[in-house]
From TrEMBL:
Protein name according to UniProt: ECF RNA polymerase sigma-E factor
InterPro entries membership: RNA_pol_sigma-70-like, RNA_pol_sigma-70_dom, RNA_pol_sigma70_r2, RNA_pol_sigma70_r4_t2, RNA_pol_sigma_r2, RNA_pol_sigma_r3/r4-like, WH-like_DNA-bd_sf
Stated family: Belongs to the sigma-70 factor family. ECF subfamily.
Keywords of this entry: Sigma factor, Transcription, Transcription regulation
Domain RNA polymerase sigma-70 region: 22-89
Domain RNA polymerase sigma factor 70 region 4 type: 125-175
NCBIfam families per UniProt: sigma70-ECF
Record-linked PANTHER family: ECF RNA POLYMERASE SIGMA-E FACTOR, RNA POLYMERASE ECF-TYPE SIGMA FACTO
Organism of derivation: Caulifigura coniformis
A Pfam cross-reference name: Sigma70_r4_2
GO annotation, biological process: DNA-templated transcription initiation
GO MF entries: DNA binding; sigma factor activity
Disordered: annotated segments: 86-122
Amino acid sequence: MHSDQTLIDRTLAGESEAFGELVRRHQDRLFGSLSHLLGSVHDAADVAQDAFVLAYRNLNRFRGQSAFYSWLFRIAYNAAVNHQRRHRRKSQSLDGRREDLGDEPVDGRSSSDPASGIHTDERTRIVREALEELGDDYRNALILKEIEGLPYEEIASVMNCPVGTVRSRIHRARHELRDKLTRVLKPSDL
């Protein structure tokens, strides 16, 4: 298996199939990250495709100061932010959200009580809706930290802001999310 840098060098030398290997190597992770950020598998697919096209066009600007995926993710993140600005989220039914997300909430507990699964589905919906109500900068920082597991420094690079700003946004996002959830969930549900 070739390194990302080898594939980049081969692509820049005119071997377009080498870029295809980079796409195959990173597309699933990028798509998953964008799905969380955008809340829609359809939007994530569009933005991921745009990001790969932009990366291909600008591959000669990749300097190797970070991992290729970090550079690609930064391009995708910027494309996602632009997409969010163009297409402000509209409220829609739970069925519409499930279709957008491409999944159904799953109750990992084994229980013979059907109400248990309903309770979990409702809680999942409430958390998703509360997360969507956060401002884009707060929601995106929180998702990058809590769902994607990126370190603060990498989030700062992706979001093009100081690490202190990232820490502040994540702190504020957690606080706002907790406030929103305590208004609608019982303490035992948190």
